[in-house]
């Protein structure tokens, strides 16, 4: 029987997609009501009986018997006496005729269309369930299995074997994945592609680092220590500002753990990302000083949204950091642009770079200022190789620059 095969096939497909029994029955009823409506113009006087265990489907049509000459004979819920007697000889006017409608009577094309509609409805349910589930999990850390590794993304699967995606842009550049291994990431966002949800995970988001701290530091999980802000250069360096709600607990010590036991596991997860844990404070100058750690600051001047920080010559490179990472992260952490300036030795008079404007091109002076060098002695105090590494200046330009500056003091 076509109906039995259809019900059994659909029920098995729905079970494979973890669709519950009441939903399966509801979908079947909706699809067959649509078939009935299309053929008869209404489904008001029809009953659908479904037995999933036996793969049984019955469609019953109910109509009232009326006289052959009645004005109501064309109503959908009426049947003429002569037509009723063809079904059963002893029907009388006013009685109800119950007639079973065979599924096969709808035609093979309608049954094929119904089968496709049933499958599509289950797929739509899957999409809705996936969207609903992961919308509620945005910002949460999950563990997933690596399913397929592609050049631009990694396809992962959750415990229900639903596909999730980790784009190249959301991977730590040092990440190396193997099929079948389990990894951690945060649910970053959900993209809709032609109404199909695509769950995007991230390992570069600052929230991922927050969740790792929550999993490793019980005081953060319990709310005794709060994370005020996280800034990252994924795989390279991060700064985490923390605050304790209990004066007896040192937030930095709690996050680092005994001999670094807590933070080491986080660092390994992030491919040896260097993490600075900073004690948050409302004192902006102290906060800036801590943010520029490990550099030791001599003095700070506030200039609106910008901050001028003065350091001893041997502390400037520490404040700036490799590739300018330390000062960039510190600026983002405190929400201020930080300009680093070198303290000049009081012995011997120094000369501001602006005074060399007739010998040194303005763009070169601007380039030097970007790295915290604003005087002749501050430039001469560092090796040429360091200056070449920290600026976009070519070696010949640097040689000429040093020649001009040295000449000033030789005179």
From TrEMBL:
Record bears the keyword Nucleus: no
Keyword terms of this UniProt record: Cytoplasm, RNA-binding, Transcription, Transcription antitermination, Transcription regulation, Transcription termination
Gene Ontology BP terms: DNA-templated transcription termination; transcription antitermination
GO cellular component terms, A-Z: cytosol
One Gene Ontology molecular-function label: DNA-binding transcription factor activity
Cited Pfam families: KH_NusA_1st (PF13184), KH_NusA_2nd (PF26594), NusA_N (PF08529)
Residue span(s) of domain S1 motif: 137-204
Matches recorded under SUPFAM superfamilies: Nucleic acid-binding proteins, Prokaryotic type KH domain (KH-domain type II), Transcription factor NusA, N-terminal domain
InterPro entries reported for this sequence: KH_dom-like_a/b, KH_NusA_2nd, KH_sf_prok-type, NA-bd_OB-fold, NusA_N_sf, S1_domain, TF_NusA, TF_NusA_bacterial
Subcellular location, record wording: Cytoplasm
Function: Participates in both transcription termination and antitermination.
Subunit annotation: Monomer. Binds directly to the core enzyme of the DNA-dependent RNA polymerase and to nascent RNA.
Family the UniProt entry places it in: Belongs to the NusA family.
HAMAP family: NusA_B (MF_00945_B)
NCBIfam families: NusA
PANTHER family tied to this protein: TRANSCRIPTION TERMINATION FACTOR NUSA, TRANSCRIPTION TERMINATION_ANTITERMINATION PROTEIN NUSA
Protein name per UniProt: Transcription termination/antitermination protein NusA
Organism: Amoebophilus asiaticus (strain 5a2)
